[in-house]
Amino acid sequence: MQSPYSSVYKRKKPGVRSSSVANATKLDLTPNTFDFFLPCPRGLEGALADEVKALAAHSPSLKVGTPAPGGLPVRGTLTDAMLLNLHCRLPSRVLLLGGRCSYADAEDIYHLARDLAWEKWFDVTQALRVDVTAERSPLESIKFAALRVKDGICDRFRALTGERPDVDTAHPDVRIHLHLRELDALLYLDTSGEPLFKRGWRSEHGAAPLKEHLAAGLLRLAGWTPGDVLFDPLCGSGTLVIEAAQIAANRAPGLDRTFGFEVLRGFDANAWSALREQARQAVRPVAPGQFFAADIDPANVRMTLDNARRAGVEGAIAAEPGDVVAALPPVDAVALPAGRAAWLISNPPYDERIAPEGEAADDFAPQLARALKQRFAGWHVALLAADLHWDRALRLKPRRRIVVFNGPIECRLMLFDMVAGSARGQ
Question: From what superkingdom does this record's organism come (predicted)?
Fold first, then answer.
């Protein structure tokens, strides 16, 4: 992918900095294409690249870069940014690169923020928020660097208009993201607003819920396809089955929410309306008998059905209370038509949902393994385990282990093909 930087700040001796607007990459409405970065949970970068390539097949201006740790760079138009926000399930945001600089201290970052043409995108009446992330940054305080970004933006508006924009950390109109690397700082304009995993259908959730973008990523990594049966016997608030049902229904994940780009200058309301209408027309019905959920807590079952209703897939999901160690297959995997498979995919928790009688967590893994071996022959199984001792405790040999991160927690997605005699030492 061609570099977007015609010129950037060059790192010189500490205390020596450029302050000319001409030396910063500018936020501008020309040219018509921009560089974006799509952050995602670590371990999903390749799957995200595949997802965006499928969209790029319908948009020649959308170019996919090489996956980087924690995300994917792409290049495209503002309409492509709308397309990515509307249809992508795996990223957490779509960030438009405004500029970057090499830096010796936070003042270099202040000058970058001050010299970028933010007025091309929003005005002084819109409240902003600045977030910061860092990898190997030499700065002692990354929070101070974020503060200097805010100062730079506000000082620019004050110089242009005599006023400063407000800062609102709770409900900002505009979000700015600073990412600090070891040698350079990057400033992004957030086109998403609320994180993309907030699809707009969740009213409540249980303890430690699986975020929607990670759930969609697990489905992809496991190998589940939209025609396959899916059963989550530890469904919690229903995230996995709802994501899968929406995929099967070809329902865009961003169809029922708003986005940050809608309040930016240069926003093409007609193009957005056309994209959203195309997405609505593409939704297809999903017949019952494909998606099943269960949980030992009846409140979680009610929550799953309520969330499914708001997500537009209530009729596609059957959910009922049940103990996973006594679960029965909702369909006969062997009897499925050719080309269709049955999947049990779940994120087993360590809490009262799996230990109603007070069993220790270490006792649960072999109980689950025994249930899978005895009753789920012919099924494909994918379990996300944050406890790396699960591999031994299950006494099942996975055909594959995939490292994926749930936030900062390193997990293993363990894949099994259940056949008779697949357990060891039982």
Answer: Bacteria
